[in-house]
Amino acid sequence: MQNDADAANPNLQDIYAAEDLQKLGYTQEMTRSRGLSHILFMTLAIMAVPYGLAAPIATSLVAGGPATIIWGWVAVSFLTLPLAFSLGEICAKYPTSAGAYYWCFRLASPERRNLLSWINGWLTLVGVWTISLSVTFGTAQLIVAGTLIYLPEWAVKPWHTYLIFLAVTAVAVVFCVFFNPILPTIDVISAYWTLLGVIVILVCVSVKAAAGRHSAAFALGHFDPSPSGWTAGWAFFIGLLPVPYTFSAIGMIASMAEEVHNPSSVLPTAIVWSIPIGFICGVFFLVPILFTLPDIATLISVASGQPVGLMFELIMGSKGGGFGLWFIIFGIGMFCAISISCAASRATWAFARDAAIPFHRTFAKVNQRLSGGIPLNAILLSTAIQVLLGLIYLGSSAAFNAFVGIAVMCLGSSYAMPVAISLANGRADMADSPFRLGRFGPALNAGAVVWAAFELVLFSMPAVLPVTPTTMNYASVVFVAFALISAVWYLISGRFHYKGPDIPQDIPREEHQEVDEKREFNS
Questions:
Q1: Distance, CA of 328 to CA of 199 (rounded, Å)
Q2: Does residue 105 surpass a pLDDT of 70?
Q3: Residue 134: which residues within 8 A CB-CB, separation 6 or more?
Q4: Nearest alpha-carbon partner for 190 in 318, 48, 30, 290
Q5: Environment class of 384 (CB within 10 Å of its CB; exposed 0-12, middle 13-18, buried 19+)
Q6: What string of H, E and C letters represents the secondary structure of 43-107?
Q7: How far is residue 264's CA from residue 17's CA, in Å, rounded to a whole number?
Q8: Quick one: which of 287, 359, 48, 321 has its CA closest to 187?
Q9: Rounded Cα–Cα distance for residues 145 and 307 (Å)
Q10: Any idea which of 239-243, 363-367, 428-432, 490-494 has the lowest mean pLDDT?
Q11: Confidence of residue 430 (pLDDT cuts 50, 70, 90)
Q12: Residue 53: what are its φ and ψ, rounded to 5°?
């Protein structure tokens, strides 16, 4: 174990982390450049709470309004905590960029681990690609909303939005490829931008309130599910969609494990603390908006389907004021696009490293000539997949919207699988985790699995009734389609060449003791 002197020495931390990574079956190829603050801020940048709540706010307005928005935020924040604790415990024991599919391989029985890790790996990969796509495309739609503040007569066509999406994606890729050494600093800037932005929005909307002020009864209790067509109870659950979307990628920082100092301690701490910090940020963002909310019918009738620009314009009483607050959300979206694209590329690289995707040798390479070592080919593959999937928007905006749901469903399933396997094993494998949950472990694990299962149902439902080809939620169809493709691929090819991570034999207990004594001597 590392003592206090070790913890204060990043060089020793990195040496020990490389040794531990070797025991997990991998060679250190990436540069460790992130401490606790960096990885915590990256998690918060990926969550992008104000952006995550604002971009899909139309769904919550349709499915109940203020009561759904604020109490849904409270409820889902608490329901996500068991998953965060459960992921932190497993991640602390197996801190590798392979993430959840590696955890499944180590926790499952020898007879099932290849298949389960293969399924989990593809769930993870589809999840990180589609969640990154939803952020970059959502930011493009946000740009459209900001433009409409000054050009309300602009007839926005799908190809306009797609071109803007390409521009947003290009910016994110440029930062991931050419500015990798400063990405930790960018995550720090993102945290300050978000904090100051929430404060500015709180003050500005509270002072101006040009659309009028509401009572606490309205801001915290008004509930009208009629626009959704659902019954009151189910409409509330449908209105929760923006909140699980905001929290859906908390486990993605596991893919950064091999770029983190002391990952067994840093990663679980960042995952767990991101929930309460994000919760507080969300409360300070939502409450002032709900007390000054413009007419809901006006907001949900916006032709573009993205009412954020109009909402801020009406609250501030001027185009300039509305644009200023919109720009804060836009900045958060861009920071999120950069951070989430980086994490998605690492997940792609890790799966390729274990020979689980076509041309895996190409996509598993780390380019040491660029930015201190980056998986350039994996970055380009992840980006190319997202650009191609984005083309679906040109044919059907409803089909594209399903990718938001499929991202949450895939990531939620991939997180729940290793937790469920560990729980089924009686949690015996977690007895020596550096972040052990102790007697609370079974309850927290069970809560995480149940919530993930409920998310699968929730994100399969259409947001409004009656269901038409336009309002149909295709997430379940896409989810099943990806599952079938990966299963068929495994039968045709995967089972013959995919052997899972190459795990060395566990070293004897005596050698562990020698390593600990050596660390104490060095410190």
A1: 11
A2: yes
A3: 245, 403, 404, 407
A4: 48
A5: exposed
A6: HHHHHCHHHHHHCCHHHHHHCECHHHHHHHHHHHHHHHHHHHHHHHHHHHHCCCCCCHHHHHHHH
A7: 9
A8: 48
A9: 7
A10: 490-494
A11: very high
A12: -85, -30
234 closest CA partner among 503, 404, 392, 461: 461
Higher pLDDT, 342 or 399: 342
| 70 in Cβ contact with 287 (< 8 Å) | yes
Tokens found for residue 484: 């079938």
Q: Which amino acid does the sequence have at 401?
A: N
* pLDDT, averaged across the chain: 89
CATH class label, 34-515: mainly alpha
Q: How many whole angstroms separate alpha carbon 390 and alpha carbon 47?
A: 21
For the stretch 18-73, pLDDT in tens is 888 999 999 999 989 899 999 999 999 999 999 999 988 888 999 999 999 999 99
CB atoms closer than 10 angstroms to residue 472: 16
CB contact at 8 A, 260 and 183: no
* SS3 state of residue 374: strand
Residue in the block written with tokens 């770029």: 259
Q: Rounded to whole angstroms, what are the CA distances from 118 to 28, 91, 252?
A: 23, 18, 18
Structure tokens at 308: 């954020």
Tokens of 349: 């690289």
Cα–Cα distances (Å) from 518 to 16, 403, 513, in that order, read: 11, 50, 9
pLDDT of residue 344: 96
Q: pLDDT, tens digit, for every residue of 230-276?
A: 898 889 998 898 899 999 989 999 999 999 999 999 999 999 999 99
Q: How do residues 191-205 score in pLDDT, each as one tens digit?
A: 999 999 999 999 999
Question: Which of 115, 20, 124, 111 lies closest to 351 in space, CA to CA?
Answer: 124
Residue of 8 and 123 predicted with greater confidence: 123
State whether residue 471 is helix, strand or coil: coil
Of 416, 412, 403, nearest to 475 by C-alpha is 403
Give dist(CA 494, CA 172) in Å, integer: 32
HSE toward the beta carbon, residue 405, CA cutoff 13 A: 28
